Amino acid sequence: MSARDGKTIAVSVAPGGRAARLGRLRARRLLIQRVLFVVLCVVWGTTWLALKAGVSEVPPAFFSGTRWTLAGILLLLWRRARGQRVGVPPEWIGRLAVVGLLMVALNATIMLYGLRHVGSGLAAVISSALTPISLLGFSVALGQEQFNRRQVGAMALGVVGIFVLFGPAALEGRLHAMELLGALGVIVGCLCYTAGSVLARPAMRTLSPAHVAAVTNLLGGVMLLVGSLLFEPGARQAAGLHWGAVAWIAWWYMLLPGSLGATTIYFLLVRDWGASRTGTYAFVSPVIAVLLGVAVYGERVDAAHAVGMALMLIAAAVVLRR
Q1: Which residue in 63, 158, 68, 72 sits closest to 115, CA to CA?
Q2: I want to staple 64 with a disulfide (CB 3.0 to 4.6 A). Which of 54, 108, 165, 307 is the partner?
Q3: Please, what's the b/e burial string for 241-273 (b: 16 or more CB within 10 A of its CB; e: otherwise)?
Q4: What pLDDT does residue 172 have?
Q5: Domain residue spans in the chain?
Q6: Which is more confidently placed, 131 or 196?
Q7: pLDDT digit string (tens) for 291-313?
Q8: Does 224 have pLDDT greater than 90?
Q9: Is the pLDDT at 290 greater than 60, yes or no?
Q10: Among 89, 74, 66, 47, which Cα is nearest to 281's?
Q11: CB-based burial of residue 57 (10 Å sphere; 0-12 exposed, 13-18 middle, 19+ buried)?
């Protein structure tokens, strides 16, 4: 074999070696993303139980405002300790403030007051079924994805599911008005959260997911906390922090795996996978939430609930089917 032949072989092998290494890196990255996705599903499937326990003892806006504010501060301190950027470029401040308002301040207030009047499992199913649908809807509205007839039909099916879930009981007088308002609060809170999620994605072309999570947590948490102290009944008394063991356990759970962990994972997956694909966590978390609601609170799911939940989850599955 000539030197020239040897050189030819070396050149031809090198690209294959690089391709193999890139393939292994992509496979490893996908595995990491899938593991993070599973963590996200488990954490957000169990936070409904913690939320219900916490807001039963503490005013909802104050309960969430304190943890979101602290979560933002801790994430920014962590970034500073690692020598990473803490400040935000001026062109992104307004957008992140809106994201914080939608995803934290409005979502937490509206949804948590709603959660006081509906079961944790049922609230989780409503929110999780609507999440992928609304994520896709807002993504289309902002030009990130496209509609098709299948998706429009699936959204209609999801609306039918909501009416099947609540309609019969409401017409027969078995569903209290506050439960209907509670369900509406869960829906509106979900829409606020998903709109903010889609609005946040362009910022992650410049800022890291952890940075976006830190800033939106802090901005939204401060808005929520200030509003709570000014207007929420019982917030100033709650500032004495005499909550009881159950509320404190729920608060710490919502802070550590919830606000610090799962939210950062969520932003990372939204950046890498897109909003609608990330929304498929909704297929797993409701099952966890319902099982916990039945086991801990003794909540019941009747036939009408089961049919409505099935329709809503089928709608979400159809929207996200590739």
Answers
A1: 63
A2: 108
A3: eebeeebeebbebbbebbbbbbbbbbbbbbbee
A4: 56
A5: 43-320
A6: 196
A7: 666 777 677 767 777 787 777 77
A8: yes
A9: yes
A10: 47
A11: middle
Task: With CA atoms as reference, report the closest residue to 275 among 144, 159, 146.
Answer: 144
Rounded Cα gap, residues 30 and 38, in angstroms? 12
Question: Which phi-psi region, left, alpha or beta, contains residue 298 (left: φ > 0; alpha: ψ -120 to 50)?
Answer: left
Instruction: Measure Cα distances from 30 to 238, 257, 273, 300, 317 in Å.
Output: 44, 22, 10, 38, 21
Token pair for 15: 């690209």
Tokens 């909501």 correspond to 162
Side chain identity at residue 91, one-letter code: E
Model-level pTM? 0.76
Closest CA to 220 of 81, 65, 111: 65
Tokens representing 144? 């990130």
